[in-house]
């Protein structure tokens, strides 16, 4: 039985004991993984394209793009309230239509 199964089963009684050093090591690992993921995302060579620009480029409405996003057919990135697309991902995703 793995840890996930132990945690998800309410019938199991689980007690974890963690010392400060182990907890600090765990926090450092999470911070490093998060930083690496953010750095990888930042190093995308393409500048993001706004939703309005994508609509103009492909002759699609914002509602159509929203439908594609909800269906998982179109990858996107959100910065605050704005939605952006990376050209490389956009080319791959739009080639399927």
From TrEMBL:
Domain of life: Bacteria
Residue span, Helix-turn-helix domain: 52-91
InterPro entries: DNA-bd_dom_put_sf, HTH_17
Protein name stated in the entry: Helix-turn-helix domain-containing protein
């Amino acid at each position: 039985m793995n840890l996930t199964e132990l945690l998800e089963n309410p019938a199991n009684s689980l007690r974890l004991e963690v010392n400060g050093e182990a907890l600090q090591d765990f926090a450092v690992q999470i911070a490093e993984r998060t930083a690496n993921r953010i750095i990888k995302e930042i190093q995308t060579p393409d500048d993001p394209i706004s939703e309005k620009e994508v609509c103009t480029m492909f002759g699609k409405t914002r509602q159509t793009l929203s439908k594609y996003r909800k269906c998982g057919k179109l990858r996107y990135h959100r910065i605050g309230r704005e939605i952006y697309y990376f050209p490389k991902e956009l080319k791959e995703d739009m080639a399927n239509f």
